[in-house]
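Because discrete structure vocabularies remain unfamiliar, we reproduce here a specimen of the format, pairing a chain with its fold in token form:
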Amino acid sequence: QVQLVESGGGLVQAGGSLRVSCAASGGAFSNYAIGWFRQAPGKEREFVAAISGIGVSTYYADSLKDRFTISRDNAKNTVTLQMNSLKPEDTARYYCAAGRSTGWFLRLTNKYDYWGQGTQVTVSS
């Protein structure tokens, strides 16, 4: 069993930056890829970014790859999503998830076994 806890969400003005983190416990962290997803009210949960178990490979939604950066520190069981040049449309609840899939399968919500409760990111105009 893996437990995931997100932190770092908050209110930021458009054009600003925010960093959200995902802390994991209860499993061998490096065995799991970690993904970030987001969900706004009335919308489907969408893929944001993912990183492989030891951080060799990263994946991004095409529209976000120039602004968002995912990284991990396996010694601290933590994955971080750095978000720059934020836009109001980035407003959503951001979730991290852990799974053992690889490659572009990590873009799919049903490939993850564990989910955190999310952290709210609100971008004001």
